[in-house]
Write a structure and sequence with these properties.
mainly alpha, 4 helices, 76% helix
Length: 131
């Protein structure tokens, strides 16, 4: 199998995640949005479901090309980051305009966006394999 992947998709994924995380932090610090516990539980659930799907599908990709491996590492980083930040936000109550709370909320959305966008890159890479 020969995968011809560029780093453009992964770069777009990382840049989009950073932008979304930064905007979320700004909106959180100004009090425009708040993260409810229900959203945090949903984000944690999404991360756990993605992790389960990854564990079930990764062994099927026996030949780990550069494209597949790097996309899997991005998805895994997003899963671990989302889980960790969601648990922190669930465990500790921050004021609506707390700087630390805004930074962690921005990180949560950064990692959640990274899961979704890196998954798109992963599917695109797997679909282009063998062509």
């Amino acid at each position: 199998m020969n995968c011809c992947c560029s780093n453009l998709c992964r770069l777009f994924s990382i840049i989009a995640s950073i932008i979304i995380g930064f905007i979320t932090a700004l909106l959180q610090i100004t009090g425009v949005i708040t993260l409810t516990p229900a959203f945090l539980w949903v984000a944690l659930g999404i991360a756990i479901v993605y992790l389960a799907v990854l564990v079930l599908t990764a062994p099927r990709l026996r030949s780990c090309q550069d494209c597949v491996c790097s996309n899997l590492s991005l998805v895994t980083a997003g899963i671990l980051g989302t889980s960790l930040t969601a648990l922190i936000l669930l465990a500790v109550t921050f004021a609506a305009t707390s700087i630390l709370g805004a930074i962690i909320a921005g990180a949560l959305l950064l990692f959640l966006t990274l899961i979704v966008t890196a998954s798109v890159c992963f599917v695109k890479c797997v679909a282009n394999c063998g062509e």
